[in-house]
Amino acid sequence: MLPNVLQPRATDHVPVLADEVRACLAVRPGETVVDATFGAGGHAALLAADLHGRGKLIAIDRDPTARTYFERLERNVPVSARLLRGDFGVVLPQLADNGVRADAVLLDLGVSSMQLDRPERGFSYAADAPLDMRMDPTQETTAAELVNTWSERDLTMIFRRYGEERYAKQIGRAIMRRRKEHPFARTGELVDTIKAAIPAPARFGDGHPAKRVFQALRIAVNDELRSLEEALPAALEMLRPGGRLAVISFHSLEDRIVKGFLRERERGCTCPPDFPICVCGHEPELRAVQRRPIRPSEAEVAANPRAASARLRAAVKAESRS
Ligand SMILES: C[S@@+](CC[C@H](N)C(=O)[O-])C[C@H]1O[C@@H](n2cnc3c(N)ncnc32)[C@H](O)[C@@H]1O
Question: Distance (Å, rounded) from C-alpha 75 to C-alpha 304?
């Protein structure tokens, strides 16, 4: 019998923008698909089914609990598949450097329901649990360590930058005061400190008062933005000409990185406009599938509120001209 945390549950992750992802990646039999954020395997199962038993699935996730879901997928979908455990910001560059090539790459960023709904993982402000937030539990730094050891300046900076938290300064100061007496160990202690640090009306405003600080800590603990910045060029390098990339982000920081990357690689000539002929020789490396990100329908958000902030951007790798 598997330990409780490894049991798939009824709250398994519902894949977000599933039809849109399938349409953008347009997987065909015989192709190689990389799902760099395997999670509970929702998207992977759909993409693997599109291979119709021919082709390969390479799954990546830094969370070891993904293995149980991967084994379930292997039992249910006839596909040649491998699961690589690790940070996609490291694994994708390694695969690219080793000459592994793919026809479709998916990044569905952030945390999954299997992480959010397990209070013991410490991602949720809704339940009192150890202040952890590591996607990879073998990693050393936890949210508690960060909250107990980082300077007020650094904490304030991440709350502001990664959480867009208006009361970052007040919360940073309150954390410093409390931790002198009692270091933080649990999510509930942090939630209470945040609530006490912000003005009363703000406690009832835009969502849960701890939402933005928890997002900021999660991004910092898992170094999420750095991973994304490392992953995107590697994903593009891995793609064969005509290969497709799809990225789902859940907040503006991620989306800005994805959008900036697609814009930069989509640009052709970078010579100043007054140059009579091109001297840079720069050619577009990809073509963005659409200008604006694809958002979930109202019906999807009603059925799965976690989809509300999702934005999908997709691109096709340019055919090589040589
Ligand atoms: C939103 S979930 C993906 C859910 C999946 N698409 C599904 O349908 O079940 C994101 C997953 O990506 C993983 N993840 C996030 N950042 C990662 C990273 N830098 N490297 C590897 N896995 C990562 C998380 O552990 C989580 O399982």
Answer: 26
**Helix H or strand E segment including 174:** helix 168-181
Helix (H, G, I), strand (E, B) or coil at 248: strand
**Rounded to the nearest whole angstrom, what is the distance from the C-alpha of residue 136 to the centroid of ligand 1?**
11
Q: Token pair for residue 262?
A: 């697609």
pLDDT, tens digit, 9 for 90 and up, residues 232-280:
999 999 999 999 999 999 999 999 999 999 999 998 888 888 888 888 8
Residues 234 and 149 sit within 8 Å (Cβ to Cβ)? no
304 near 248, Cβ under 8 Å? Answer: no
Of ligand 1's listed atoms, the one at least distance from the Cα of 228 is: 19
Q: Are 238 and 286 in contact (CB under 8 A)?
A: no
As a dihedral over the C-alpha atoms of residue 52, residue 53, residue 57, residue 61, rounded to 10 degrees, the angle is 90
Ligand 1: atom nearest CA of 15 is 8
